[in-house]
Design goal:
Chain lengths: 162, 162
DNA sequence: TATTGTTATACTCTATAACTATA
DNA sequence: TATAGTTATAGAGTATAACAATA
């Protein structure tokens, strides 16, 4: 369990189990993002919405798949963001049932501000490591991500323009 | 932004920025836990509640500090867990205002089941790495955690029995 | 008076089921 | 008929403010 206290069974003092260490790091980063975006009165899911809209203008349906939520949840999520002027709805001209969601200028600027703040937060966490380890950690993380994605038949670096 | 697509500016194809890699790994682990505990109709916060109770019997107030929630949020959280028979309330004999929260046998067994399932999930993610890296990743994660904690004046490995 | 916990209230987030409009 | 999206409804999770009981 991630939130259990440090002393895992069978581990020497001053050590976390592999799983504990990764789980706690995950909570640390997640929590840092949560606190950061809370300063802008955003939740994690609202932030993810802004994030996926930075380089897409998906339909509500596509948004539901991207965020792994039910379409009815997307309705409310987008409506609250729209009420705050962060995103805009537009009826698709190709299919008049479909609604296209895009970032407003305000939404884009907020997304950028958060991204750079958060980047600084994570960089700060890494600064305690010696320079060689500071490169190794993201490299290993990438490796796990790429392998995990490929295990699901996804190429993390697939490009549309090829 | 963590949920942005892979190609970060200024990065060669096939690479994630350091921050992106860590953020995405964090979301991967968080999501894996979320899906795992959903099988038992638990949320992340309910799971964290069970987790902190594995080696503590705190008051509501202490629980609020441990989980970084308002005490009024703890009331509902504990009540829902209590209704499911996972935790129990008991009035403190030392201070009759205080309520002590503990894990029931059912709660403890559920917490153990989840911990071992989740441990397997994370181990599986690590198995794609060569053995040396498989040790390095948790080691680096621990280092970041310990340094982060000490920066806040906390000794992650403090013991009560010394 | 101060502290512990609960209650009342309000809002976000989520899902299921029923609905409308378009295809 | 099938699909895209919204609405109605219900419940978890969260915070603020007001409250009761105990210290």
């Amino acid at each position: 369990m991630a939130s259990r206290s440090a002393g895992a069974p069978g581990k020497a003092r001053g050590e976390l189990s592999a799983v504990d260490a990764l789980a706690q790091l995950s909570f640390l980063i997640h929590g840092a993002l949560e606190r950061r975006v809370a300063e802008h009165d955003l939740s994690i899911i609202q932030t993810r919405l802004l994030g996926v809209l930075r380089d897409r203008t998906p339909t509500m349906n596509e948004l539901a798949k991207l965020l792994e939520l039910d379409k009815s949840s997307i309705t409310g999520l987008v409506s609250r963001a729209e009420r705050r002027g962060l995103v805009a709805r537009a009826t698709s001209s190709a299919d008049r049932r479909a609604v296209l969601v895009s970032l407003t200028a305000a939404g884009r600027s907020l997304a950028s501000a958060i991204a750079s703040r958060f980047e600084a937060d994570v960089s700060m966490m890494l600064e305690s490591l010696p320079p060689s380890d500071r490169k190794a950690l993201p490299r290993l993380a990438s490796q796990v991500l790429v392998d995990h994605a490929s295990r699901q038949g996804i190429d993390l670096f697939a490009t549309t323009d090829s």
